[in-house]
Write a structure and sequence with these properties.
This protein is of the alpha+beta class and 732 residues long. The chain has 18 helices and 21 strands. The longest helix has 96 residues. It starts with a strand and ends with a helix.
């Protein structure tokens, strides 16, 4: 068989190309991305067909990478070739909805029937692998295209001469084998160095994370200690204040009793100086005078009569009784005085104790103030730490201006499906007085029908963030850390910290791609976006399956918020593995970010567990209006495919324009581009765009993406305005 001519209509980057082949060996070589592999795969596709896939993506992943740039999912081409010197013409046109094949014998113009698939029978039973190995020798760094041509020419020349052909072949084979070993050794060394670098980075990252965890623990311990001290001090101060209040009340009671006591006057009198008590002094004087008078009378009358003696004795007894009265009254007043003084002393001691209590209270308050100051310092430190940790976790700006170009939150630039507007117009507002359907039957059935799964395999939540939070809560319960990329959605680690789930962030490679081998370690679960955000890098389904196969005992969550913009979904894997959950959303490709609808698809057992958790605290998570709008949206497949294709087309045009302006970015398969310019600061460009009412997204953390901007794909008009501004700003 000899290929004469390849006519390429639409295949990958090749369009309207005509390539002729000469008899013998044709050597095709060139720089990377020149189209060598594309041409090889085109020949395979023409001779052996394109395999059907599942769902919307009807092409096998081998050919998906060669989806035409100008007309996605539409392939066309023709071949002229000889089989046993008979000329044949083969034409193939393939679209995911239909196909058309033509095979003619150009010698007589007879059109032959073509069975969809390959032409191996026409080629003598050669299968695709054999054909590829026969007609294609991959280019390596060891041998240039010209060197390979020279080797093959020498081989053919020697073969034609006969004699030394085998010797030359052996020599060439030995040289290539030796070179292969050298290259294998170099690759091994490079891989070892790379793995060592990665290990060092992981160790460094683990140390930093450990330090961060230690700091968090110290902060938590300090907060607990301070709260305990505050609680104890508040209790002590309250108790002292209570005692002080009781003492003051007792003192007031004593004073009141004293004011109202019947003997207060006597007590007051007892406390006066002696000169203020004439009754007592008069009594004493009377007793003394009577005694002196009696002695004098007795002395004057040496011989008194009996009567006089009796009267004298009576008088003298009266004087004695009067003196006794005065003495007894004095003793009673002294006792009252001592009692009053004792009460006064008790009051003084109480006041002293109250003074001590006031001093203790002031000391406690000073200590509390000191603790508050210390707490304030710790809270300031904690705030600064959390500020650094959370800087990259802020949502995109939602400016209130109307005349802006909003390319910062990955919203769909086109309105929802027409059926959504109709459903909203005919919605019966009277139904809002009723609770919604807790199992969301209409929406679940619509999703199940669209993705060709059973309704028992579908879980619906209020946006994909809510669905992911429910998944974290339901399935990530072991003490082993869950794994997710270090550059991805910021809420993964937020949910993990909130639910106290241990986690490890796996670094992406230098091209911001996820390496499946990094996830082949002990863990408590895995979650990652595909395509990733904010990088837009797509992981092939084969790589996802590699991760799943390496982790059969844990849940693997594939977050496919952007899969509809050119990626291949991992949904077929849920039929092969019972630990896979695929999450999608209505926010991006279906233009319903404002309604908040997300869903998960998995096997019925995992979906039941998920619903059990949801129904345990709230059965009515989605309102009637949202259910109606979501159901209308999922039923309009044609509009869904139309808008996604428009965004894909605009994205590819924008890539070309940005690349021409010097921007660097990966091959995004989402509705955004993660790009940087080597000569312009990302922060400066972000601010310049913002000043001109063009809003894109900038991430301050982590440091290695600080120069990148995430640019959402808008309408054609919006993207043209963006490019025009960048041309002026860059002076190009």
């Amino acid at each position: 068989m000899q290929i004469k001519e390849a006519i390429i209509g639409q295949f990958g980057k090749l369009q309207n190309r005509q390539i002729s082949f000469e008899p013998g060996i044709n050597v095709i070589y060139g720089e990377n991305e020149a189209g060598k592999t594309t041409l090889h795969d085109f020949l395979l596709a023409m001779f052996f067909g394109m395999e059907k896939g599942r769902g919307r993506n009807t092409l096998n992943s081998i050919y998906k990478k060669h989806e035409p740039w100008h007309a996605p999912s539409y392939y066309s081409g023709a071949l002229r070739f000889l089989v046993d010197e008979k000329p044949f013409y083969l034409e193939r046109n393939f679209y995911y909805k239909d196909k058309k094949d033509i095979l003619k014998n150009e010698a007589d113009g007879e059109e032959l029937s073509v069975v969809y698939g390959d032409l191996s029978m026409l080629l003598g039973g050669i299968d695709k692998e054999t054909f590829g190995n026969t007609y294609d020798i991959p280019q390596t760094g060891a041998v240039t295209g010209k060197e390979l041509a020279d080797i093959l020419s020498e081989y053919l020349s020697n073969a034609a001469e006969g004699g030394g052909a085998n010797i030359q072949v052996q020599k060439a084979k030995a040289a290539l084998t030796a070179r292969k070993k050298e290259l294998a050794q170099e690759v091994r060394i490079i891989h070892e160095q790379k793995n060592e670098d990665i290990r060092q980075l992981i160790v460094e990252k683990d140390l930093l994370e450990r330090d961060a965890r230690g700091l968090h623990a110290n902060i938590a311990d300090a907060e607990r200690e301070i709260n305990q001290l505050k609680r104890v001090r508040v209790e002590e101060i309250g108790e002292k204040r209570k005692r002080l209040s009781e003492q003051k009340r007792q003192q007031a009671d004593r004073r009141e009793r004293q004011e109202n006591a019947p003997h207060k006057r006597e007590i007051d009198g007892a406390m006066q100086p002696e000169k203020e008590h004439p009754d007592r002094m008069a009594g004493i004087g009377i007793c003394a005078s009577a005694l002196l008078v009696n002695i004098a009378v007795h002395y004057v009358t040496s011989y008194p009569s009996r009567l006089f003696f009796i009267l004298q004795a009576v008088f003298f007894a009266g004087m004695i009784l009067c003196g006794l009265y005065v003495g007894i009254r004095y003793a009673v007043e002294q006792a009252k005085k001592e009692a009053y003084m004792s009460a006064q002393k008790s009051d003084i001691e109480g006041v002293t104790q109250e003074t001590y209590a006031d001093a203790g209270l002031r000391q406690a308050e000073r200590m509390l103030l000191s603790l508050k100051e210390s707490l304030s310092e710790k809270e300031t430190r904690r705030y600064n730490i959390m500020q650094d940790m959370e800087e990259a976790k802020q949502p995109g700006e939602q400016p209130k201006k109307s005349q802006i170009i909003k390319l910062n939150t990955n919203e769909n630039p086109y309105p929802p499906a027409p059926g959504v507007k109709e459903a909203l117009a005919y919605f019966h507002t009277d139904d809002l007085r009723l609770y919604p359907d807790p199992v969301v039957t209409d929406l679940v059935d619509g999703i199940a029908q669209f993705y060709q799964v059973d309704s028992s395999q579908v879980f619906v939540g209020v946006g994909s963030d809510d669905v992911l939070a429910m998944l974290f809560m339901t399935f990530f319960n072991s003490k082993k850390p869950i794994l997710f990329p270090d550059i991805t959605y910021s809420f993964y680690d937020v949910w993990a910290e909130m639910l106290r789930i241990p986690y490890t962030q796996i670094p992406l490679d230098d091209a911001f791609r996820l390496n499946p081998s990094d996830y082949k370690c002990e863990n408590g679960g895995i979650v990652f976006p595909n395509p990733n955000a904010p990088t837009g890098e797509l992981l092939p389904v084969s790589a996802i399956e590699e991760i799943i196969q390496a982790n059969p005992d844990v849940i693997v969550i594939v977050d496919e918020a952007y899969i509809d913009f050119g990626g291949e979904s991992a949904l077929p894997l849920i039929d092969k593995y019972d630990n896979v959950i695929v999450v999608q959303t209505f926010s991006k490709s279906r233009s319903l970010a404002g309604s908040r609808i997300g869903f998960a698809i998995s096997n019925p057992t995992l979906i039941k567990y998920l619903n059990d958790v949801k129904y345990s605290f709230n059965s009515y998570t989605m309102d009637r209006i949202t259910i109606a709008l979501g159901t209308a949206s999922i039923r309009d497949r044609a509009y869904f495919e139309q808008t996604t294709e428009k965004i894909i087309k605009t994205r590819e045009w924008t890539k070309e324009q940005l690349r021409a302006l010097g921007f660097v970015f990966g091959d995004s398969k989402s509705n955004f581009i993660f790009a940087m310019h080597p000569d312009v600061s990302g922060v400066e460009l972000f601010e310049a765009l913002k000043k001109n009412d063009i809003y894109v997204r900038h991430f301050g953390k982590p440091a290695r993406i600080n120069e990148y901007l995430r640019i959402t794909i808008g309408t054609d008009e919006q993207m043209h305005k963006l490019i025009d501004f960048l041309k002026k700003y860059l002076n190009k």
